[in-house]
Fold:
Amino acid sequence: MQTIDLRGVCCPTNFVKAKLALEMIDAGEVVEFLLDDGEPVKNVPKSLKAEGHKLLGLKETDGYYTLTIEKVE
Amino acid sequence: MADNNKTTTIDLNNLKAGGFIKERGKDLFTVRLRVPGGRMTVPRLKKIAEVAEKFGGEFVHLSMRQSIELININFKDFDAVTEELGEGGQKVASCGARVRVPTACGGCEYNPNGLVDTQAAALEVDQKLFGTETSHHKFKVGFAGCPFDCPKSATNDVGFQGAIWPELDLDECISCGLCTKSCTDGAIETGADGKPLFHSDRCTWCGDCVKVCPTDAWRTTKKGYTVRIGGKWGRHPLVGTLFATFLPEEQVVEFIAAVLAWYKEKAEGLGRIRLGDVIIREGTDSLLSHLRLKFPENVVAKTIPPQVIETQVGKP
Structure:
């Protein structure tokens, strides 16, 4: 599974980068995004859900978050 | 000098609701246009540009309440300006002691935060109540689509803020923790079992939990407007306070009409006084019980008067 580090990337660049990363994989594949606390973890999951992707989970590790997403075409 | 003796004729009916505002200097007026909710179709915008170029100055002004104002219009051109704007479906706005053009955010059609259709509400209020004489003072209405409240709804005489009531279906919850993380107001905690614990008293009804929930375990079970009344700005600002919750969108006009009726009656003999100052004089219970007759499901049990903002403290 691919992990994309979006830490240190601010909104909305992080979301756009996530979209670009999702373009590179096939529907049904799962990818992890690393997100900073604060605005990024509040905004990026909601926006990706609104794009139609499936959110599988979110877990916190040492002050940042790992968001697991399944690409939906 | 023959021209100076010519009598100017103007259709005074066009001036009834106001919207033509005297400028500095001779003969010149600002013409305030009616743009409910700040939505302007592109063809209308083109027509306005045409009229501004023909009759106005070098620029237009974007007003604080989402209007376009034509600047430097000679009063002799009032009829022509009104007529040419009318060809593009553009009307002139109001000023004075009347219900003004409502303001609104973009609403919910394209804005991901919007919970309710503020644009539809602003249009409906504009169609049904615009220009209504209050007999006392101006009367402003504003619509915010969510608790972010970009339009500053509580600074209006009646301010509406979109809201949804979330409910959790525990069976659908996968304990991902996204709702807890998304909740700005700390209304969702993660319980010992890993499932969300909802503290409804802290919820401001923004709907972020519903929007982020991957399995639709959080659902919207009620939708409507949080209504705050008695706000104003100016020399002595007041922030409106909570009078109703989850007012259905289709009852907005009726609600405003009920507030207006109370205002007209209670301000009788008080001259030029805004709604918020009348509430402070009369007490909140009088307005609450008046509104409760028609909106028993939505009017709150008790509230506080509009809140004075002390903007003069600290003067030397």
Observations:
- The CA atoms of residues 52 and 72 of chain A lie 6 Å apart.
- The domain at 2-52+64-70 of chain A is CATH 3.30.110 (Translation Initiation Factor IF3).
- Chain A has one domain: 2-52+64-70.
